[in-house]
């Protein structure tokens, strides 16, 4: 068991004891937890050597519990406390501003034993009669419950990334930092994240910690220690900071990037090789000699592995692939030369074509596709064939201004109607540079019908890309029912690309589907589905998704030069 895990158990005991209204004991457990957490010696090793009794704040009773925990991984005392405490009370502790003492008081005086009961009591103004409670307290508690409810869901990667980057930027501006990185699920690029993790390598942890808690967006400091701090920022998002010595930076980066499942495998591989892998480094078990730890590459190398990109660290075969040199060379931002799905103010976008193309040129794209909606999507001001004709002329004029600098592809996101036919005549479609076909209506069809609808569109020979193939919206709308294997087979047969829609709440295809589609021989097109110039940056979310799907650049249309791309698209026209 790790120090942090042991500490967590004691913090929990402290909270539970406090909920029972016991004096002094909770503080004793908290002191011990904090001491164990801050120590840079393994608690397991200390127990082996009998030194855990010397830890400040650890008396006979706590020492016994440490032994039991480390030896068995469990603690009877904790189990007993958990049984004795109503679970609703424990849940109340996660409301900002409600600590064990308040929870206990509410329970004793008003019989409140859950977040729901507390909410109802506050709404009915039953709290203000209590000693020390007023209108203000009621409001604060209701606000806290609101925060709790809103963050029940995880945050989108696309929302969290800029927040994390601004935080890192703040730390850089305040300190001369040699090594800093986000880690955790954010670095792995998961589509949603639970919290933001930041790692700093520095010998001066005090300075780092004070710069960390002294950030304007911080609303609550949850924990502020010398190596580990936690804050809550506006919107209720938690940010964790770890500070380690530079010599451990690589090992800590590896450890705190996770995933937990990946790390378990890494440690197990270490054990097989006689190595101990932890957040401080890689050590020979026999001699305790340190063999790696300052760089993350070094950690993997010491285990006989090639570097495993963070996006692949989900325990889904990456370690075996790394060992046998079979990891793909993943597509990366420098390979991607343009965006293949953008809406302008001709349909439901907010910016004119000229502005979009100018922005894309500033981003040094080689190409950008303007793909507005078609007529049947009336709420999106979809284009009739006549208006589309005019738009193509407008696009050609913008192209003239930009010369060879950037290729502007005149396209459409044509609606795939219920029967699988397309919302534009083939005479119009075949003259466009690029055609995305998307389903936007009757999303609840059964799998057979929906699969036929989409394969019909692919087999028309008029569609280059299927847009947001599963239609899911993260946290809001389930994917449509599809025989996804059949879709990928037909995609390969018809040479139609699958979109990786990079809009933050879509990420569709999702990573596991990308990997599956790749095995079926499918090609991919990354598109931001931008409805404003501000959305063009989402392209990187599509790249991250492609990487998480094990894709290399030869599978991604966006990695082609604009000439290659145009040749390929034109070659598909009837
Ligand atoms: P999240 O925040 O829920 O989106 O997911 P993560 O992966 O960022 O998880 P988090 O923030 O709890 O921890 C960050 C990383 O630290 C995690 O990916 C692996 C490492 N880690 C944390 N706790 C443990 C643990 O108890 N055991 C192991 N092996 N690794 C851990
Ligand atoms: Ca995290
Ligand atoms: Ca965390
Ligand atoms: Zn669409």
What do you see in this structure?
This protein is of the alpha/beta class. It has 24 helices and 17 strands. It folds into 4 domains: 149 residues, DNA polymerase beta, N-terminal domain-like (DNA polymerase, domain 1), CATH 1.10.150; 90 residues, 2-Layer Sandwich (Beta Polymerase, domain 2), CATH 3.30.460; 75 residues, Beta Polymerase, domain 3; 239 residues, TIM Barrel (Alpha-Beta Barrel), CATH 3.20.20. The protein is globular. Strands 11-12-13-14-15-16-17 form a 7-stranded parallel beta sheet. Strands 2-4-7-6-5 form a 5-stranded mixed beta sheet, sandwiched between helices. The model has no long low-confidence stretch (mean pLDDT 93). The chain starts with a helix and ends with a helix. Helix 1 packs antiparallel against helix 2 and helix 8 crosses helix 9. The site of zinc ion (ZN) has 5 residues, from loops. Zinc ion binds next to loops.
